[in-house]
Design a protein that fits this description.
This is TIGR02808 family protein. This protein is mostly helical and about 45 residues long. About 80% of the residues lie in helices and about 0% in strands.
Length: about 45
């Protein structure tokens, strides 16, 4: 494996965990907001 390939794989490896955590957080937040909006009083 070339040095460039090694650098690319290291960057991908280190970037994967924050992306997974942040996308999971965003998905949970979006679902929670959607569920809360279902129970909101529409007349208020």
């Amino acid at each position: 494996m070339s040095t460039l390939e090694s650098i690319i794989w290291h960057v991908l490896g280190y970037a994967a965990m924050p992306v997974i955590i942040l996308s999971g957080f965003a998905a949970v937040a979006a679902i929670s907001i959607w569920l809360l909006s279902l129970g909101k009083d529409k007349n208020a």
